[in-house]
Write a structure and sequence with these properties.
Elements (H helix, E strand, L loop, with lengths): L2 H14 L10 H10 L6 H28 L6
Length: 76
């Protein structure tokens, strides 16, 4: 996992658990709020989770591509 994706996941996890800044809205807070009404309003958690997934996937794929292109130790 890249450093950026790891930091995003760490921030979201801390906020999801309730230890983050309550005045700032982020994906962890959105997933936590959606968790309370999961049976009636499931989309609140779903869309924040999808956004989190695609963001971390994008950073990981970008880092892998840059590593493949710029790593001098990689045998081609």
């Amino acid at each position: 996992m890249t450093a950026i994706a790891g930091r995003i996941m760490m921030l979201v996890s801390i906020t999801f658990l309730g230890f983050g800044d309550p005045t700032v809205q982020d994906w962890g807070a959105m997933i936590n709020l959606g968790r309370e009404g999961l049976l009636t309003s499931w989309w609140e958690s779903l869309f924040a989770g999808i956004a989190l997934f695609y963001t971390t996937l994008g950073f990981n794929l970008t880092a892998d591509g840059m590593s493949d292109a710029l790593n001098p130790r990689l045998v081609r």
